[in-house]
What we know:
The protein is α+β, with helices and mostly antiparallel strands. The protein has helices at 24-72, 90-93, 173-208, 210-220, 240-287, 291-322, 336-353, 373-389, 444-454; strands spanning 74-76, 82-84, 102-108, 113-116, 135-141, 144-154, 163-171, 332-335, 357-362, 367-371, 396-403, 407-413, 458-463, 470-475, 482-483, 490-493. The strands form 4 sheets. The chain has a 6-stranded mixed sheet with strand order 13-14-12-11-9-16. A 5-stranded antiparallel sheet has the order 4-3-7-6-5, with helices on one face.
Amino acid sequence: MLPKRRKSERNAGGGRRAGPPNSLFGEILDWMLAPLLFLWPISIILTHSVAGDLANQPYDRALADSVRTLARLVMLEEDGSVGVHFPAPPRAMFRADQDDAVYYQVSDVRGQMISGDAEVPRAAVPPVLFAEEVLFRDETIHGEEVRVAYQFLRAGGEPEGPLVAVQVAETRNKRSDLASQVVTGVLLPQFAIIPLAVVLVWVGLSRGIAPLNRLQSLIRQRRPTDLSPIAPASVPEEVRPLIVAFNDMMARLEQNLQAQQRFIADAAHQMRTPLTGLKMQTDLALCESDPRQVRDSLARIAESTDRAAHLINQLLSLARAEASFEKLYVVETVDLVEVVREVAQDVYPRARAKAIDFGVEGGEQPLQVEGNPVLLREMVKNLIDNAIKYTPRGGHVTARTRLAGSPVVEVEDSGVGIPEPDRERVFERFYRVLGSGEDGSGLGLPIVLEIAELHRASVTLDPNPAGAGTIARVVFPRTALQVLPPVKGGFQPLG
């Protein structure tokens, strides 16, 4: 199909659309290092959290032991009051040191202090009490964070004894120091590991893409005319599909270059004949002194010039059709009925000069296809030109458009016809059917086929069922069809 006009490369916001990555190496490196740099801060946060939990465990066990020790010192006095009997100074019992301050408190459930430090906040009684269960919570005393271990028990171990809260609180300095040491011990190696990982990734990627660099060097060393395929087995597996596609493209390019070379050689050969004839007839005219003979020679020169001009125009038309994929033309919506009528008006004088009954048949509905109007007119013109050229004097030629599930253009003539063995070969460039009795370049039908294939249409040549002659038929794809409102149609003779 003919290429459509390229859409703008700018997006709706006015900016240029993002293109492919400039470097495959950089793209892979980014996707490998970006997650690493993203996960590193997360690992620091998780490490700090785990280090805090690890630091709490040994100190929480020591704090729980202090609570149990203090609980065993709680006694029920003879008068029913609760007391605490310390065998030694409390600070010595709780092993207070220079790093952390230790607070303790024994109080009843209403918060009335029995012994200890009043700074320790009151503990809330849990819904369910378990014997000798030690609970933990975090509090603040004098603006400093502390870890509190506490336990509820019955004084004197009596089931009916008063409920007492025993609490021991300790500042978190040693815990923070231990957590910091754990975090430092874990993160410091990472500062060395991450740069090393970057270097190793860089080296690994460099070695990984080395085959691509060798492939690039191999392609650069090739001669400009070397279009031979690259052996897929010599490249990495991931690149093989690309190499296979590249080899396929090079094969098509080789075929196109060979076709162009054949076309240039054939065109040069075809042009040599009329130019040689012109030179000979000119030399003969220069040797004549009789005005009538000179006039006849000039007439033959003019006839040869027309044939040469026709050949050149057809060569240009074929080159134009072949170059259409290079975006020299833009696809438009084209009415086939209108194209046939315009071309018929242009070629009508030739049909009239041969006394040919030439007419146009249009369908009841105009047909539209997506295509290039210049090329489609050239295609229809070559079909009608061929029909008029090979139809004897007094014959008839009919160009029609119709809808048969798909848009169809037909040119019917009552000419000499095409033998069945030649119906495929007439689409070859410069091939002409012997015995036709007409001069020609052999480019008309190749031009028709080239333009039809660009429009994804098919071309067939069938014998005329009405007798002598041929029906040339071009069938366009169904997807290209668009039906317009009906207009008056029917057979319209042009002469």
